[in-house]
């Protein structure tokens, strides 16, 4: 590995901003803004990742009083449509009351507390508890109590459903159980200025939820930085400037920007390496740019690993040794080459031309423009190279992550019920639509349980899903390892993990403040 202690505050090689400056189609000015987190030490007690006490504290101090995305308006498109939003042990019912109004209530009957809805429903005329038949109008007003003579203390005034605060951003419905919370607009601040295509013009083209064997914070942190690429995703390094990514933070928002084109500064490469994939296929073979080990797929769950000195061995997709004189191998690369592949994607091409980083960015951006031109017309010529090639992803406290304009990825991370050692990783493709285009129906959700492979969600394609599978190896190992951390704390890099530092410092404010932290008002534009 190339030494990355350079005497200045980043790794060697071209910086992200320098790459942007050389693009043929210039990036939006907001991408050039610098808002780094102040350097400093952030330590987090590892008990926050697994104890029931910490989980319960988050329920009381965070989830019961913070703005959180519940669903998309397309999920409750028609009057009477209901959506059940669960977070930790809490459950809320989001209801389309009229064409222009959405309300939310605790998902609990005012009689004895049974959940009013067990799952999402369509076209309800009223909200009815399945246990004893108590019912409410869509607007929460008490409608009917069987044998009401037997409940002299019950009336419309006393037992109508209690409303939960509702807000909307970008087509998403947010809720806040705290009746005294600040407006959603103040909480989100000027988030809109980071997106040239408003989220109202995006639709849900794919959707999955994967249950993970780790705390929701461990899951989320894995997607907040590119520092882990060198260890977890070596297949990206020949044309991905991982350690020279750009990170910025604002009040409840943070951003990571990672460039396609320039090779990792951990390698000795000066330009993208076209020989990294010998078969010019993404999943059939790969030469590790640092170790020079060659990984070759023999069949599913069988990988041959060869060293430059001639040693070789055969391993399964989890890097368990099978045979040969080489006894150990990189588990993430064995997973990438030997893991499952969606049908008909086994031969997905992976071809780099022997060009500079800027030329590769230009080629990739131009190819993407031609793919989009039939739907978007000549407007594609104005879309920046960065928007079409780079990983530009935001994190909005506490738990959702929208990506920039023309990368459709959208994440959300939630506790899985009251189990602090499980979580739900939600992935959507929020695809932008040209002006005036008809809005398709939202995709149905694919649910993957603990032992289901990400590639079973075929609508997301093998490339992204196999990256998720590599991250999954860390999720399992992290949850196991944090209980045995000798110092009892996790530490984070000052810059490359500043999104995680920002998240934990914000979370600490919520967990220790008697009153929910308020957002600073935006100064009026001068």
TrEMBL record:
Rieske domain: residues covered: 67-175
SUPFAM superfamilies to which the protein is assigned, alphabetical: Bet v1-like, ISP domain
Pfam family, one: Ring_hydroxyl_A
UniProt key word Iron-sulfur: yes
MF (Gene Ontology): dioxygenase activity
Family matches, as InterPro entries: Rieske_2Fe-2S, Rieske_2Fe-2S_sf, Ring_hydroxy_dOase_asu_C_dom, Rng_hydr_dOase-A
PROSITE patterns (alphabetical): RIESKE (PS51296)
Keywords assigned by UniProt, alphabetized: 2Fe-2S, Dioxygenase, Iron, Iron-sulfur, Metal-binding, Oxidoreductase
Cofactor(s) demanded: Fe cation
Protein name: Aromatic ring-hydroxylating dioxygenase subunit alpha
Organism: Parasphingorhabdus litoris
